[in-house]
Every structure is written in C-alpha cells, then in structure tokens.
Design a protein that fits this description.
The chain has a single domain, classed as HIT family, subunit A, CATH 3.30.428.10. It is built from two helices and five strands, in the order αβββαββ. Helices cover about 20% and strands about 20% of the residues. The chain is α+β, with helices and mostly antiparallel strands. The chain is globular and about 35 Å long. Strands 1-2-3-5-4 form a five-stranded antiparallel sheet, with helices on one face. The chain binds adenosine monophosphate (AMP). The site of adenosine monophosphate (AMP) has 12 residues, from loops.
Length: about 120
C-alpha cells in the first residue's frame, strides 16, 4: 500500500493543525478550507477508501463520527448544523487515498450536490 500525506500526519512526520488525536483517530484542519470550520477526521490505520473498510475498522469509523460531533460542539456549529462528507474514489473526487471524514460548517452549506442532475 502506498503511503499518503494523511498517514504521515497521523505519525507526526509532517506538520498539520491537529485538533484531536487518540488511539484510533486523528483530526486536523483542512489546508484549503471550504467553510469556516473544515476539519478532516481520519482513522490512524491507513485504509485507502470507504470501499476497503472491513470489520476491524468499525470501531475507528464509529469513533470518527463521534469525534466529528464533539468537534462540531467545540467549534460552536452544532446547533446551526453541519455536514459530514466521505468521498469514495473518482466520481466523488477523492484526492487522498486514506479514508477521511470532512466536517464542514459555520455557514449555510447550500444544496448537497453543487451540480444536481
Ligand atoms: P478529498 O477530495 O475528499 O480526497 O479531500 C482531500 C482534502 O484533503 C482536500 O480538502 C484537501 O484540501 C485536503 N488536504 C490535502 N493535503 C492536506 C494537508 N497536508 N493537510 C490538511 N488537509 C489537506
């Protein structure tokens, strides 16, 4: 499996604006934020896409969602609402092949798809 920039962030080998880390997941701010709050939450174990998730990854995936909800509270965006996005492969525009959950909020986010058919 090829190493990714997110695996390097998890291991502390390259700098990132970390907001949370535990034994299962790491969260850091997106370098190109698309909303006032834009945080990425990743499993510490490198799993390329959601399609590669197996039984052993379920605790980390569940933790990612709980950490996203907690961070949304800390960011003060939980009451107004926020969006969680998991992009999988080409049609979703996945760029980094290490599963990551986008936490986006802090402004109205518009329709779910920019270009609905
Ligand atoms: P995706 O299109 O779902 O694969 O999203 C990848 C995201 O990773 C994009 O929003 C990028 O801005 C973000 N990104 C890429 N490199 C870094 C980095 N070194 N630190 C933080 N975010 C990054």
């Amino acid at each position: 499996m090829t190493d990714t920039i997110f695996a390097q962030i998890v291991r502390g080998e390259i700098p990132a604006d970390l907001v949370y880390q535990d034994e299962l997941v790491t969260a850091f701010r997106d370098v190109q934020p698309q909303a006032p709050t834009h945080i990425l939450i990743v499993p510490n174990k490198p799993v390329p896409t959601v399609a590669d998730v197996t039984d052993v990854d379920e605790p980390a995936l569940g933790r990612m969602i709980r950490v996203a909800a907690r961070l949304a509270e800390e960011e003060g965006i939980d009451e107004a609402g926020y969006r969680l996005i998991l992009n999988c492969r080409a049609h979703a525009g996945q760029e980094v092949f290490h599963v990551h959950l986008h936490l986006l909020g802090g402004r109205p986010l518009g329709r779910m798809l920019a270009d609905p058919e």
